[in-house]
Specification:
Helix 3 links the parallel strand 3 and strand 4. This protein has one domain. It contains seven helices and eight strands. It has 239 residues and is of the alpha/beta class.
C-alpha cells in the first residue's frame, strides 16, 4: 500500500451478498458432510475406552487424513454435543463459512476456551498440520493452554482411515479416558499414540479384510462395496 492510501473495503451491497452466501453454504454444510460420510466411506466403527464426557472438553487427536474435520463433526453430533474445532487462520480465510459451523481461529485461544467452557467438544489437532498416516508427531502446547483456561479435561482420541478388502475407506476410532487439564503435551501425545497403536494392532491381527474389525461398534453407516451389493445375484453366474 502506498503512502496516504486507505484500506479498501467492499461496497455494502457486495458485503451483504457475501455474508448471505456464507450463511447459505453454512446452512447446507451439515448435509454435505453427512452425504460425504455416507457415500464416500464404508463406515465408521469405534471403541469407547471410557464414558463420553457429558460436558465441555478439549479433544486431542491425530491429524493424518483429509477426513479428520468431518469425523470430528460427526462424532460430536453422535453424542449430541456442541461442536467446535481449532482451525488455522489461512484455512478460515479461504473458507470463512466454517466459522458459522464451529471453527475457531487457532490464534483465538480465549474464544476457544469459552466454547469448551460453555459445553462444546473442542477438537484440536496438536500436530499442527496434516501429516502422513504413521506415528504421531510432537504435540504443540495449545490444547493444554485452552483446557486450563476453560477448566475442562483433555480427552485423547485416535482414528485410522484405511482401505482394506472393500471398495471404500473404513474408519476406526478409539476414544480414551480423560486426562487432567494440566496434562503436558507429551502426555497427551503418548495417550493418542497408544490408542493409535491399538487400532493398528487390531488391523494387523484381522483375519478377514472384507469384514469390519471385531470389537468395534458401528458409529456411522457408509457405502457398501459393489461386490457386496451384487452378492444376492451371485447365484446367477456362479456359486
Amino acid at each position: 500500500m502506498t503512502r496516504g492510501a486507505t484500506a479498501y473495503t467492499l461496497p455494502w451491497w457486495r458485503e451483504r451478498a457475501r455474508s448471505r452466501l456464507h450463511a447459505g453454504i453454512a446452512a447446507v454444510l451439515p448435509w454435505l458432510i453427512q452425504r460425504a460420510l455416507r457415500s464416500d466411506l464404508a463406515g465408521v466403527w469405534g471403541v469407547e475406552e471410557a464414558s463420553a464426557p457429558s460436558a465441555g472438553c478439549v479433544i486431542v487427536a491425530n491429524h493424518h487424513s483429509w477426513w479428520d474435520g468431518y469425523l470430528a463433526w460427526a462424532l460430536a453430533r453422535r453424542e449430541s454435543r456442541p461442536f467446535a474445532i481449532l482451525v488455522d487462520a489461512a484455512t478460515l480465510r479461504r473458507y470463512p463459512f466454517f466459522e458459522r459451523r464451529g471453527a475457531v481461529d487457532a490464534r483465538a485461544v480465549r474464544r476457544a476456551a469459552q466454547r469448551a467452557r460453555a459445553g462444546a467438544w473442542l477438537f484440536v489437532f496438536p500436530e499442527g498440520r496434516l501429516g502422513p498416516a504413521g506415528h504421531v508427531a510432537p504435540f504443540a502446547r495449545g490444547a493444554g493452554v485452552i483446557a486450563r483456561l476453560a477448566e475442562v479435561p483433555i480427552v485423547p482420541m485416535a482414528w485410522r482411515v484405511v482401505v482394506r478388502g472393500g471398495q471404500y475407506p473404513e474408519v476406526y476410532v478409539r476414544r480414551g479416558p480423560a486426562l487432567a487439564a494440566d496434562a503436558p503435551a507429551e502426555r497427551q501425545r503418548e495417550a493418542v499414540g497408544a490408542l493409535l497403536a491399538r487400532i493398528d494392532a487390531d488391523l494387523d491381527a484381522a483375519s478377514d479384510a472384507e469384514r469390519p474389525l471385531v470389537g468395534y461398534a458401528p458409529w456411522h453407516a457408509g457405502q457398501r462395496s459393489t461386490h457386496d451389493r451384487l452378492a444376492r445375484w451371485r447365484g446367477w453366474w456362479g456359486a
